[in-house]
Amino acid sequence: MPCSHKIPHAARADCFGPTQQQVNFFRLLCSFRLDLVVALIETLGRKAHARSHPGALKANKDAPKSLLREADFLKLFGGSTTSGLGSQVSVLALPLTAIALLHAPALSVGTLAALGTLPYLLFSLPVGTWLERVRKRPVLVASALGRCVVLAIIPLLWALHHLDMMALYVVAFLVGTMSTLFDIAWQSYLPSLVGTSRLHEASARLSISNSGTQLAGPGLAGLLIRALSAPVALLADAAGFVAAGLFVGRIKRPEPQPPKLKKRGWLADIAEGVNYTARHQLLRWIAVGVASWNAVSSALNVALVLFESRVLHFSAGTIGLIFLLGNIGFVVGAPAVRRVTQRLGLGRTMVLAAVLGGSSPALFPLAHGAAAIPLLVSGWFVRALANPLYMANQVSLRLAITPRRLTARMTATMKCVVMGAMPLGSFLAGAAMGAFGANTSLWLIAIVSLASVGATALTKLRTASLASERRADDDAPTLEMTRVAAL
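Request: output the structure for the sequence above.
Response:
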């Protein structure tokens, strides 16, 4: 199949001349704020609880105010959410551009998706070591604005009749590189912004938001492409990264000087972070569980787009609608994270989430005929419901058990493993779709998804709980881990 395009001027006008209805639709989509939806649901839940438990109202007055009322945290929250949403819009927008405009084969689509996450595997370890030597906030701003510039190249090349797969490959890799910088930097920046006592709440809220953007982004991308066309959708995506940079750039709290590290080579610093993560009895299984989860998610992003567009013959808007309806599961699951974790315990909550998320892909290969859309929505709903329960707790747990001086290097090591699995999942999904067809590929993905269940339910993660706090400025973990009865 040819991977470059020639299009008449009249047809090209549709790409850059949206109707007023399309503009109004785009404004409606841009008004969507995942963080405000979650905050509203939590507020309504607290009010209902206060009405049914009047005695709890007095105790709540003495509690510290929510981080959602802290201006600087809200700016980081807004920047991280906007950045994550933009990154995930690109996850679907770039492959759909390749499929719809360049008629790319399945292997090329898988390669494109893999290049977007390959930088996590290549650069996470050196980036984590470097970030311990510099202030993080300027890195956050620069990486957000850099993605805006790079993504804007796509509509420009389209307008000039020079868009091809090589250009998409380069853009995907550069965007992935700057996403690597941003993701590691915000997790390393968080302890200095909110302090030790509120680290668990902050990391939980940000990881829930990040999980939500991973789920909502592809659906939003499908609707944007239907309303505005693929090039304009990517241009709107680029504008979102400007907003992310402005959010973080307006944080007023001064960032402390980076700690002075021992003068030794970068390789020794990298090795210390890798050894700490690999030898820790909890961190290594978190890495296995999240890596398998992410690999399956990336494989599904490729396989489902190809399956729905080329086998079921769904439009981009229908594909986006399926993702958005399924993501209602996230809106249900995210506000319940704290309550479910308090009732079941951290370990049991992660096991429950792993079972739900690991089994739901078995519904996708059954999606044919009249049952196709209900099964696709149901499978994505269950996975979206489980996502915040699993991801929020694993991020809180690994930040809690890691000394502050190793936070950036531990985060980098984890990113290298858990995000490095994503290009492998994308590439193998594209290759399998081309070699074995849709149904066999989706069944293989469903089988692999059970790995996250084993890494959680059959290891010490199932008995993990957050017990007591320690100071974060010494070499001890910020929260001590204790064990509870096994499931």
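The chain has one domain: 21-41+65-257+266-483.
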